[in-house]
Amino acid sequence: MDRPRAGAATAIEVEDLVKRYGDTTAVDGVSFSVRRGEFFGILGPNGAGKTTTLEMVEGIREPDAGRVSVLGESPWPRNPRLLPRLGVQLQASAFFDKLTAREQIRSFGSLYGVPASRADEMLEVVGLTDKADTRDEKLSGGQRQRLSIACALVHEPEVVFLDEPTAALDPQARRNLWDLLRLIQQRGTTVVYTTHYLDEAEALCDRVAIMDAGRVLALDTPAALVRGLHAATRVALPEAGLPEAEARQLPGADEVRAGQGETVIATRNPATLIQALAERHRLDGVSVRTATLEDVFLHLTGREYRA
Fold first, then answer.
1. Residue 226, in any domain of the structure
2. Radius of gyration (C-alpha) of the chain in whole angstroms
3. Does residue 56 surpass a pLDDT of 80?
4. What is the structure's pLDDT at 8?
5. What is this structure's pTM?
């Protein structure tokens, strides 16, 4: 497991963290470190222990065992010295009743002694300047998520925790939020977040921890995790252009599946296979799919449905 050394460059240290609820162990000996300025993802199926782990690191929930250090401080019991240095955006955002977007940010900022003028700066950062005078219940789901992040960042925290910030958003809103999350990190903030979207984690995270049943199963950069899977490359092309029987004779073809109008060839030697297709003038309509973080996730956690 890749773990940075403790010290000034480390924002978070988690060692052997445990949380139990009766006979259920929700978090079972979790350990990881997060570097300052890093975008760190915690991934896992429903019930994996992601949110509980995040809540203990944030200081919202007391661990039963183990140690947490955030910016050199213990977050539990609630640490007044640490709170102004952290920003938290929860799965379900709660706003003050009947306030506009500008008023919401000002209200959160006032808790940290932030001047009211900071609200307009944050509205610009999250792309909500034109919604400044709109009450939160009139905002779209994506706009509410951006407002929630603005409230978490208004006091310029060193570390921000985001729990599934793009859940239930449409694809366009998700991609817009990606740009915001990249901007947050570029400003020097350490970002720790959970998500169910594997493509998102692959695009945004410097490193990810994959959890299941309360344990960390793997921790590394997305690219290193994918390389470690040693998965086959899949080459697909229209079935009419390459019948299954012919595909099976190609050098480099390990497995062949035909159906639904296409022939899919699994190979661990894609260069040889592509060259053979080129020599036979069969490259029209070809698509190549390498392994992704989703393949790693399913390999580690299984494919069964999680309620």
1. no
2. 23
3. yes
4. 63
5. 0.85
